[in-house]
Design brief:
Layout: E1 2-7, E2 12-19, E3 22-29, H1 34-48, E4 58-64, H2 68-85, E5 89-93, H3 94-100, E6 108-116, E7 119-126, E8 129-137, H4 139-146, E9 151-156, H5 159-169, E10 175-179, H6 186-200, H7 216-228
Parallel strand pairs: 1-4, 4-5, 6-9, 9-10
Antiparallel strand pairs: 1-2, 2-3, 6-7, 7-8
Amino acid sequence: MNTLSVCTFDETLEIAVSMDSQFSIRMNRTGLKHSESLMPSIMQMLSESGLSLKDLDLLVCTRGPGSFTGLRIGMAALKGIAFACDKPLASVSTMDVIAWNMQDFDGAVVPLLDARKQRYYSAAFKGGKRIAPDMDSIPEDLVAYLKDQDRILFTGSTARPFAMDVEKLGVLKAQFFIDDRIRSYSQALTELGIAQFNEKGPDDIGQGPAYLRKSEAEAALEARTREENPNG
């Protein structure tokens, strides 16, 4: 299966082309300026792999949570290719992708992303299975899902500060582990995308990014509307 995968949930733009046993990855720290390099990078990678857009069998992207702009750019680009070339698209939860590398850990795995405003995008898994949903959270929100765990691994770019905040709460007796290395998520995204497509088929035509919260622009508009119309 020829698969194109795109990760755009944070400041690192990651593109992968998979052809059966061959796997090519390109990572670029674009600082959320993914729109400038995404399509040129896709076309260059396909050319280097000897493929065209029409040779692809599946498109895969992260659907969130994560950067509003990054998620929108990644999904919009692949939706454009899907429409133009009549190709299936599968979008995968960012939390599933981050946790995938740690699925063999003997304990609970908590994938984390910076959600800003002293909050975190999070979830929890054990043995590769979910024990908590995707959340826009503070550390206290995870306690109920982790209270019976003996070992907890926090993984992702904000794993260390989150783990420190959880430890300060003093309510969990588990042994904590931290993995905050910068790593590639392309293989995880590709394998999860293929598995999801084989099980459930392609995304619904109306599927969009999963943001978990309103964008800054939406929140500002709502606040302004309330100020202008205090009585509803």
